[in-house]
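Researcher: Let's do a round of design. I'm pasting the structure tokens now; please hold your answer until I've finished.
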């Protein structure tokens, strides 16, 4: 590592490096994310990490917020590609299409682990979901929309937990069936 007194200070780059390392480490097990493990992965001193994030919870808060922003961007992009305004169908397509993307998988695993670790992240996820996917409360959805969201959640959980490997063909069939349900939900 260069002499810190001669190194250009790029706080946003260091911050993003720390966040990316925490996501990579946390994708396997959030409990392995420590300032020490991040320091070893990035070369940023523990003091440097603390300069950007005073504790692990602040770090997780930033990861969750950034992850939800990315997920929102992916959903918006999917809506543009497919020409749909249906958040549930865009959510389904993102889950199906992004599954092979390493960054996406790490991000989604960290979101899932955060939700399992702390109730405030469950509430943050539900708030995000209500705003970007269902535009309101799940209990007010019609049955077809609720089915689409529950199946998509199930695919999301299965992919993140590495369970119930579903073939590409099966995923296509699921998407086709849910697309029919989506059309029926409008009628």
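Researcher: That's everything. Go ahead.
Model: Designed sequence:
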């Amino acid at each position: 590592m260069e002499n810190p007194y001669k190194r250009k200070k790029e706080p946003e780059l260091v911050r993003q490096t720390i966040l990316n390392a925490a996501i990579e480490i946390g994708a396997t097990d959030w409990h392995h994310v420590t300032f020490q493990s991040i320091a070893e992965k990035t070369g940023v001193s523990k003091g440097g990490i603390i300069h950007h994030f005073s504790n692990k919870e602040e770090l997780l808060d930033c990861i969750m917020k950034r992850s939800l922003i990315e997920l929102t961007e992916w959903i918006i992009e999917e809506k543009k590609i497919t020409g749909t305004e249906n958040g549930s169908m865009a959510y389904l397509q993102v889950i199906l299409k992004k599954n092979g993307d390493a960054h996406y998988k790490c991000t989604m695993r960290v979101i899932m682990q955060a939700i399992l670790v702390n109730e405030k992240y469950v509430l943050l996820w539900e708030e995000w979901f209500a705003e970007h996917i269902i535009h309101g409360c799940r209990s007010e959805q019609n049955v077809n929309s609720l089915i689409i969201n529950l199946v998509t959640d199930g695919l999301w959980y299965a992919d993140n937990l590495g369970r119930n490997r579903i073939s590409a063909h099966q995923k296509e069939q699921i998407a086709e069936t849910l697309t029919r349900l989506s059309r029926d939900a409008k009628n």
